[in-house]
Design a protein that fits this description.
By secondary structure, this protein is α+β, with helices and mostly antiparallel strands. The chain has 4 helices and 3 strands. β2 and β3 form a beta hairpin.
């Protein structure tokens, strides 16, 4: 689920003097493939957190994100959720273990 947006929805760019975006020249940014909305992390260490935030916040609301791609992304998110739920110990197991 994490690779899908990185491969199909988000591209990295380096801020240049000719770009009409705020930020420092040479700063790494994230840009939506579909609507060109962007995010400029304040420091290199924050790039991962910004990618995760961009995935959660922007992809749901992007008006240009194709419906087929959005449906596939939602399916992957849902599969990951249910997969993680299956790996959690059940309440019955926890009660028996701590009894």
């Amino acid at each position: 689920v994490h690779n899908f947006p990185r491969r199909h929805c988000i591209k990295l760019f380096e801020k240049r003097e000719s770009d009409h975006t705020p930020g420092r020249v040479g700063q790494v940014g994230l840009r939506c493939f579909y609507c060109d909305e962007f995010c400029l992390p304040s420091k290199r260490e924050a790039i991962y957190e910004n990618v995760v935030s961009f995935q959660r916040n922007h992809l749901e609301s992007c008006p240009s994100f194709p419906k087929k791609m959005k449906a596939k992304y939602k399916m992957l998110v849902q599969q990951e959720y249910w997969s993680s739920q299956e790996k959690r110990p059940s309440h019955a197991f926890l009660r028996a273990y701590y009894a």
